[in-house]
Amino acid sequence: MMRPILLLAVLALPLSAMASSFAGSSAGSASGASSAGSSSSGDDKIVLDARDDAAAFVASDGAIRGARLEAALLHLREQSVAQQQASDMVLARTLLAR
């Protein structure tokens, strides 16, 4: 019963993050800045929001896996091939170092 709820939460977090990022960037920019800056701030938000979950994951030696950590792990693995090969623990420690 808990796994479907966790899966739903993991899937819903990136969608809500993208929606808020879209709303923030769709208003446009008077300075003429590109939208690439907006997307990187959204990326940072996903990662920063996962820091508490990452801390719990590292402290529990991987036993505690929060939904925000799961979303950040998926996000990081989409960013580079090197991160696709990294373990969850390595990525969680990387989140804490940011």
UniProtKB/TrEMBL annotation:
Signal peptide: 1-19
Annotated stretches, region: Disordered: 22-42
One matching Pfam family: DUF2388
Keywords recorded for this protein, A-Z: Signal
Bias-annotated ranges (Low complexity): 22-41
InterPro entries in the cross-refs: CHP02448 (IPR012661)
Protein's recorded name: Uncharacterized protein (TIGR02448 family)
Organism taxonomic ancestry: Bacteria, Pseudomonadati, Pseudomonadota, Gammaproteobacteria, Lysobacterales
